[in-house]
Amino acid sequence: MLNSAQEQNISSNGTAIQANGDVTITAGLSYSDARDVALDVFHANFYKLAGAAAELATARAKEITEEFLSKLQKEAPAGLGKAQEPDFQYALLTVQKEYAKNGDKDLGDLLIDLLVDRSKQEKRGILQIVLNEALGTAPKLTENQLAALAIAFLFRYTKKNDVGDHVRFGEYLDQFASPFVSKVVTNQACFMHLEFCGCASIGIGGIKLENILCTTYQGLFLKGFDQKEITDRGIAIGLDQDFFIQCLNDSSKIQVNALNKESLDEKLSSRSVSSEDQTKIIQLFETSKMSETEVREKCISIRPYMAGLFECWSGSAMQNITLTSVGIAIGHANIKRFVGEFADLSIWIN
Predict the structure, then answer these.
(1) What number is the average pLDDT over the span 97-124?
(2) Which of 13, 43, 217, 239 has a CA 20 to 30 Å removed from the CA of 191?
């Protein structure tokens, strides 16, 4: 048995802890402590309103704070301990103030996603700086502008590698594009304001949506070729099913089995295909592509609502914009708000 007499040496700033059993020490703040700190920050810094306006602002601040802390506790509980950091409090106050002013639920959800992502950052870096800026910028944008950022980010900066046929492509459009398609507008002022807010730049040259889709998902938009092409071109591996499948758009023909040029290159390298065969297979992949008109018609046949997006894209500065880091962060958060899980923002901002 251990001696019951205990002796401790404590430094001037230390805390003495004694117990007969194990002691568990939890660093950081609890949920309730973080909530109290967050609301204290709001009450101490938000300008004083009168009567019903003050009550409404306080109620909204409590609502957004609870929703944020609940999501943070679920996704990154260690972030609760940052409630005592000045930069964290300033970012949270930005969210509280903006939601207290207008109570827009969609904006509130977007800001929560941005703030949760910001809370996951362990140190000051480009991603934390961008997210701080995005928190202050998003409230300056309309629903139409937020939708434009989401659509531009989706098609210009991302690709979904498991979209292997037209059925899955339609499901992809339903999940990621359809929430925003009806909200995109052609108004030039919409895009000028995005540029003014530092979310995008409007260039002289543009790129059509058809071209983007035909590059990112090229395997979905091939006309195919006759099987004898493999023999005529002297492809040594022959009708290898890893590289050739029935054409998705013409069952009487075959096509190269790849979603895009990048995936084809990876497949050719992994199989150690001869350089001669690689060149010939790539040529077949590139020469059987649909035209821009055919790509558009195929997309519309898969999902008719895409007609409106093609019109908006070609009839506005959407085809001319390049997103900044802030625009990417907001576009990413807006998509994540609808689909839930999404690739980490650090893929695009690092």
Answers:
(1) 87
(2) 217
